[in-house]
Design brief:
- Helix 5 links the parallel strand 8 and strand 9 (about 150-155).
- The protein is built from 6 helices and 10 strands, in the order βββββαβααβαβαββα.
- It has helices at about 50-60, 70-75, 80-90, 115-125, 140-150, 175-180, and strands at about 5-10, 20, 25-30, 30, 35, 65-70, 95-100, 135, 150-155, 170.
- The mean pLDDT is about 95.
- The protein has a single domain (about 5-180), classed as 3-Layer(aba) Sandwich (Rossmann fold), CATH 3.40.50.
């Protein structure tokens, strides 16, 4: 029997909390963006059913690990105070560990999704069998990270990700348990 553990890696924005629709005219560092992370604590809204879903994943024997890109501090669109308040709420959730990449898109780090650095680091730290693990996200970047790390990919439906072809697609985090029971 393998001593390696199984994990569910979760993205934050769009999975744990709502993303913010900035409209068609939002530009961050010369790149047009419509959907973003919350930039203020007032914009942070936890999705319904998150706590229950995380507890069920843990009860099913999975490590629960957050792996999130948070470049807004580097871009100047978010204040450290708001980031810290949001992360205080996130840390109150039943995660086993949290990995955050705060690098900007042009910094060339190995941890910023779609690179698999955060998942690989967690895999070493927690002795995770990545091939028996899942990543739950909502973007092409999350999907690329999971594929690069050898995880199964679950995408939560959103209007910006309809062209993606993950291993699984769900409407919300609560539906992930059905996938876990079927594998």
């Amino acid at each position: 029997m393998s001593s390696l553990k199984r994990a569910i890696f979760l993205d934050r924005d769009g999975v744990i909390n709502d993303v913010v629709d900035r409209g068609d005219n939002c530009v961050v560092l010369d790149k047009q963006v419509r959907w973003t992370a919350p930039w203020t604590y007032a914009e942070f809204i936890l999705k319904p059913g998150v706590i229950d879903a995380l507890q069920k994943f843990k009860a099913a024997g999975y490590l629960i690990i957050l792996a999130t890109n948070q470049p807004d501090l580097a871009y100047g669109t978010m204040k450290r105070e708001d980031h810290d308040k949001i992360m205080t709420d996130i840390r109150a959730l039943p995660f086993d560990d949290i990995f955050i990449c705060e690098h900007g898109r042009d910094e060339g780090c190995g941890c910023k999704k779609p690179k698999p650095g955060m998942l690989l680091e967690a895999g070493k730290k927690w002795h995770i069998d990545l091939a028996q693990s899942f990543i739950v996200g909502d973007t092409k970047s999350d999907m690329g990270t999971g594929q690069a790390a050898g995880c199964k990919v679950i995408i939560i439906d959103h209007e910006q990700n309809q062209k993606l072809e993950p291993d699984y697609r769900v409407k919300n985090l609560s539906e992930v348990m059905g996938i876990l029971k079927s594998v």
